[in-house]
Model the fold of this input.
Amino acid sequence: MGSIGTLSAEESPLNEDPIHVLVTGFGPFGQNIVNPSYLIARSLPANLFLPRLPPIQIHPHPAPLRVSYQTVREFVPSLLFSPKQPPSPAANSHTPGSSGPGGAEDIPKQDDVPNFDIVVFMGLAPGRSFFTLETQAHRDGYKWPDVDGRDMKGDNYWSDKYGAPDVIETGFDVADVWRRWKSRLIEEDVRPSDDAGHYLCDFIYYTGLCEYWRRDNPDHQADKGGHRPVVFLHVPSGEDEEGIKRGTRAARGLIIALAESLTARRKQSTGKESIRS
Done:
């Protein structure tokens, strides 16, 4: 197995602001009583110190996310962004979900600031034996019911409200990330994928990507690129101890690859070693 090669805090070579990484996993669904994605998320180390990188601080969400379209649409935007100004009393009096499907009016406004430098959503691909880095997410086609028995057939919120495209790609250079990831996990089967499955994994990925997309495209025009530091990792079945260790190694390796790729891009664009814009 490839080496991660972490250092102590004192050995970390760069005096930089940390790279803050959000990691989430899902709860049970269908016949999957235990979802290894959350077990992997909570098993990750809190900090990583590596040569030529700022410190990496990993923030696993403290609870598994419910496999629910409404939960994802209502909760994820406020997880990713914080308002610059405190919300008004009128905003606080709003009842979540009262605006229709997904409680769309609870979604943060465009002057919010991101809470994290990198966002890694994780979910289970039942029956699969390998790890996949998803490259894009889909707006439509969610016909499979969630744990609440609800599907998203006929839901047009993203297109009607924001004119969001039917597919949004991650802002990371996937080829670069995959090369770095694979170099650290030489014996592991890790693959890129362009089909996140049109279920909650795909839905949460699109939700996160769209929150960045609409801030970079306030005129709701065609995709102009932009800052979308969000990825989705599909993990294989395996909730036993060895399966979780394997998943933790893969997720940790991916986080390092993402931090390396982001740092290299920042250095190239700014001419200095700085991770935050």
Q: What stands out?
A: DSSP finds seven helices and eleven strands in the chain. Residues 47 and 91 are 36 Å apart (CA to CA).
